[in-house]
């Protein structure tokens, strides 16, 4: 991977930051994208030669096109894209506002489409590249209070597989990594107390959750390791795959 160029979204914190740092350690020049400019600058400070901050709102199609053009002009041709940015708005369907629904799809699906399209257009004539979208295990198993999120992640995952089919003949691979509960700000908002975390580990019959058979919450690095594998040459024969990284929480369905 040394010397390659990657775009990583959601890079200001959590899983995106772990992916950016993991790639940077392998000699990749990382364009780190996020809406949080200050946090991006702090991340870049940890690896000034490897990580380059590009603040952008992924909900804006024109801004996304412009940032990809800027990245290619400043860093060079993009070899890898990792779609990590996402938001979680909890709530039952009957009480959900239009704004919660629209905001969820704007980031988790439309942003993935805008950026993947902009990057794929450039990868296509070069006939090389790898794209990974970070989905969620909630895309495979219905979850209470998570309808918009789960539906947006199912759509983003399936979009990524269709992209993989369109690009396979051009030497470009597209895969999905679907995390379960992972120790980040998103997870801590959902489970603020140690008792909440224990409930996730144990499972809950009223919540229709089976718990986590491996008995731990993932670290962001656990998810980054799967992403790095799918981006690399060791995965050269893998495309349109969905790699579940959830400690068995969805029983592999
Ligand atoms: N943490 C978990 O338990 C978990 C489980 C399954 C899936 N995931 C998925 O993994 C991904 C990363 O999650 P995380 O836990 O690191 O979340 P996080 O909330 O810590 O980080 C998400 C990042 O996305 C950025 N972002 C949000 N909206 C944006 C926008 N419009 N434009 C640009 N950037 C934007 C945020 O600023 C933030 O830095 C998400 O897609 C999430 O759905 C997380």
UniProtKB/TrEMBL annotation:
GO molecular function: 2,3-dihydro-2,3-dihydroxybenzoate dehydrogenase activity; oxidoreductase activity, acting on the CH-OH group of donors, NAD or NADP as acceptor
Pfam families linked: adh_short
Claim: ATP-binding is one of the keywords in the record: no
Keyword Transmembrane in annotation: no
Transmembrane segments: none
EC number(s) reported in the record: 1.3.1.28
Enzyme class name: oxidoreductase
Family: Belongs to the short-chain dehydrogenases/reductases (SDR) family.
Protein name: 2,3-dihydro-2,3-dihydroxybenzoate dehydrogenase
Organism (species): Polaromonas hydrogenivorans
């Amino acid at each position: 991977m040394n010397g390659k160029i990657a775009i990583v979204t959601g890079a200001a914190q959590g899983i995106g930051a772990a992916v950016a740092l993991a790639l940077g350690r392998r000699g990749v020049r990382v364009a780190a994208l996020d809406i949080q400019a200050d946090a991006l600058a702090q991340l870049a400070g940890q690896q000034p030669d490897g990580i380059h901050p590009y603040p952008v709102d992924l909900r804006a199609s024109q801004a996304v096109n412009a940032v990809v053009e800027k990245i290619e002009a400043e860093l060079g041709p993009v070899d890898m894209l990792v779609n990590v940015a996402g938001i979680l708005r909890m709530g039952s369907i009957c009480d959900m506002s239009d704004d919660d629904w629209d905001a969820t799809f704007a980031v988790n699906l439309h942003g993935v489409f805008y950026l993947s399209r902009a990057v794929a257009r450039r990868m296509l004539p070069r006939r090389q590249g790898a794209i990974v979208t970070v989905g969620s295990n909630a895309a495979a198993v219905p979850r209470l209070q998570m309808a918009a999120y789960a539906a947006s992640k199912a759509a983003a995952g399936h979009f990524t597989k269709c992209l993989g089919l369109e690009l396979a003949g051009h030497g470009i691979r597209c895969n999905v990594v679907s995390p379960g509960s992972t120790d980040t700000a998103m997870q801590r908002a959902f489970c603020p107390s140690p008792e909440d975390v224990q409930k996730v580990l144990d499972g809950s019959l009223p919540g229709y959750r089976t718990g986590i058979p491996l008995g731990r919450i993932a670290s962001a690095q656990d998810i980054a390791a799967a992403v790095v594998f799918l981006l690399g040459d060791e995965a050269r024969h893998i495309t349109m795959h969905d790699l579940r990284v959830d400690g068995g929480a969805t029983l592999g369905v």
